[in-house]
# Entry
Amino acid sequence: MVVINQKKNLNFGKNNSPEISLNSNLKRWFSRNIGLWKSNRTYFLDEVKKTYNLCMNLKIQALENKSEWESHYKFSWYPEKKYIFFEENPQYRERGEMLAYLKGHQLIRGNFYLSNLEGISNIKQVDEHEMIFESSYEDWHIIEHTRLVDSDNYRFRVIYSWNKNKLKIVENHHEIKIIK
# Structure
């Protein structure tokens, strides 16, 4: 597997005009995700041959920016109740937050869900309702499909995570918007 953007090169050319450095479709898509989501999740863990079902709360907020052309977000999550999943799989954080911002077709993350490392997710737009995020950090390579459904009241996410080129985790998330 090839590590994506290993040098974290954020230079997109000499012209720094906001119209060129910001993809308004991405900004609009992210704004449709703002709110509190009830996230019903299924984790398939290959190594231990176990499946877990749990419910998390996921809050996505737009943050104020110095420039109207920058889009900064805060993602925070916490469980609906206590789950044995987190005791058996301590690499997953029961609760936490991530700060991120858009730069071109990349999401610049302050940290990843399985690591405190900052990094970059490359974004591919499938259509006006679905984005694909591709990330690499440490020995992980992750592909996440996120699709908005039914006037943005629902989201479906599927996440594939490889560690050292071996598929380790498959996740399905069915999410219902609770608060806009």
Residues 47 and 168 are 6 Å apart (CA to CA). Strands lie at 35-45, 50-63, 72-79, 96-103, 106-109, 119-127, 130-137, 140-149, 154-163, 166-179.
